[in-house]
Amino acid sequence: MPSLIDLRRRIRAVKSTQQITKAMKMIAASRLRRAQERVVGARPFAQRMLRVLNGLVSRVDQEAHPLLRMPEGDARPLLIVITGDRGLSGSFNSNVIKAAGAFITTEGVGREIALGLVGRKGRDFFRRRGFDVRYEQVNIFAKLKFADAVDLATTAIEEFTSGDATSVYLVYNEFKSVMSQRVVVERLLPIPRLEAKDMGDEAGLAVDYLYEPSPEEIFRDLLPRHVQIQVYRALLESNAAFFAAQMTAMDSASRNAADMIENLTLYMNKVRQAAITREIIEVVSGAAAT
Length: 290
Prior knowledge:
By secondary structure, the chain is α/β, with parallel strands linked by helices. 58% of the residues lie in helices and 14% in strands. It has five helices and five strands, in the order αβαβαβαββα. The two termini are 32 Å apart.
């Protein structure tokens, strides 16, 4: 049976941990609000641009721009894995790593997968396992900027247009709500073409476009910008999802600490009561003996 001193020491340690988890929850909540505002502001534009361009490229020849060409040959895909730089966020990082592992197992049969790694957790995990890493970046979420997305998009475009990668995929956590994040694996390059069943009311319109200047000149500027925006949206989604996951994890840890403190306090009181009872019995027994 532990002594009262040991129990008091354990209670103090748990209380100190609880103070840390409460502070981390408050910090994550404040950062989540700003990250959520950024992703909510960027999401409608990025999603509409994705839909318009996907519908547009379904009506043009794939030779109009290198980013539209379907892959030829048996080159390897490039998988961009976006994780967090820190832990203490529940299953946030492990879910992304599991999804990346499933993609590698499925798509990597008979060929290697090249990786682009964003975030310290994913970088450390895949580097230790000897994967071919073509791009890595850590500590960008502290001050996430559009320039970070431009660097990542530029690497993806170079890998695809040079023929080193037949396709480029993103895997990241999409922010749904404070309590919910969804792991997404989506193709970035070549730019997907909308099928008729995905175009909704636009499917039966058979819209034709007039280009001024030529489609090649428009796509030359528009499509790389589109890739940059989609990468930036993925980074914003992952950033907001990380703070949501961390806030939820720290809230759960604080509540668990409170339960542990309550149980330890109750046990300590029982031990103290047993010690007092034992001393009373010893006093009474000594008095009776005299």
